[in-house]
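Appendix C reproduces, verbatim, an entry submitted by the partner laboratory led by Prof. M.T., so that reviewers can inspect both the input and the predicted structure.
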Amino acid sequence: METDLLSPQKILNEIKETLPEYRGYAFNTWFNDVFNKDLYIIGTYKANANLQNYRSLDYDGPLAALRDAKLYLEQNVGENYTISDRDLNPEKAASLIAYCIADFYVKQALTDAKLKPSDYSIEDNQVKFLTALKKYQSNDWLSERKCKAAFLQ
């Protein structure tokens, strides 16, 4: 069983693998379908294992994932986010942190490619987006500390 599904590399791979299926759709439609519509990790045992392996700057595990998701949503989405009983469900907690990590990378790549979330994912735009996304796949960016430090700014 994979226990690194919440790592930056796995999230980036999910972005790259799912985008071609949404050619012709707006980037925000693709993002919503992949990271916001359904659970990212199915199965309580699998979600728990992935949350246990979650690494933050100063803490590890499920509570660090929830704290990072809360901080990210408050700083980047503008929501005053309160962790609720719903978030303590491992599948929902794993999906929440996956959403936040993916949102960070997608926003960065769209900005670098000079695209908007409402732009259509036509071939030229996908090439621009994926080219911009490559920057974040370097070993330097994938180091847990650098990614998490940027993620939580």
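The CA atoms of residues 68 and 147 lie 12 Å apart. Additional entries are available on request from the coordinating office.
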